[in-house]
UniProtKB/TrEMBL annotation:
Name by which UniProt lists this protein: Phytocyanin domain-containing protein
GO CC list: plasma membrane
Subcellular location(s) per record: Membrane
Gene3D superfamilies reported for this sequence: Cupredoxins - blue copper proteins
Keywords: Copper, Disulfide bond, Electron transport, Glycoprotein, Membrane, Metal-binding, Signal, Transmembrane, Transmembrane helix, Transport
């Protein structure tokens, strides 16, 4: 019985020492429409689960739009940061490195005022196991008795003199 407990504890400790593997998701902002005017980015983001480590990709015709990361006030009021902070490649990938609210706007003309802006909430990495992995064992011993054992359950260690 004690051997089973030691084995279970060893297996749990070994499993906890391996990093939890999760695959990052890449989101194309606006899906097939990309980063453009006349698209509801808030509706697009609704229901999506953005996690730390995921990537968002802004796809647009180079020169037609830009992408600025802004704060909540910049988002609400369409305040453009300095031009040298703009992403302008037409295929801009942003890795979501921290949890929290994130805001992005287009800095071309009045595109932001016309609705070309995105607000998302990034979640901290979940400490969930892969769907293929079994759940962790219960801390209750296999005997079903409360742990630690009662004094009456303890037995002295007896050594077999003929163990060799």
């Amino acid at each position: 019985m004690a051997f089973n407990r030691v084995c279970i504890l060893f297996l749990v400790a070994a499993a906890m020492s391996f990093p939890i593997m999760s695959s990052a998701t890449e989101f194309i902002v606006g899906d097939d429409s990309g980063w453009t005017l006349g698209f509801d980015y808030q509706a697009w983001a609704e229901g999506k689960n953005f996690q730390v480590g995921d990537k968002i990709v802004f796809k647009y015709l180079e020169g037609a739009h830009t992408v600025f990361k802004v704060n909540g006030t910049g988002f609400q009021n369409c305040i453009k940061p300095p031009a040298n902070e703009a992403l302008t490649s037409g295929n801009d990938t942003i890795v979501l490195a921290t949890a929290g609210r994130k805001w992005y706007i287009c800095g071309v003309g009045s595109h932001c005022d016309m609705g070309q802006k995105l607000a998302i909430t990034v979640q901290a990495p979940a400490l969930a196991l892969s769907p293929n992995m079994p759940p962790s064992p219960s801390p209750t011993p296999l005997s079903g008795k409360p742990y630690p054992p009662k004094v009456a359950d303890k037995r002295p260690f007896l050594m077999n003199p003929h163990w060799w």
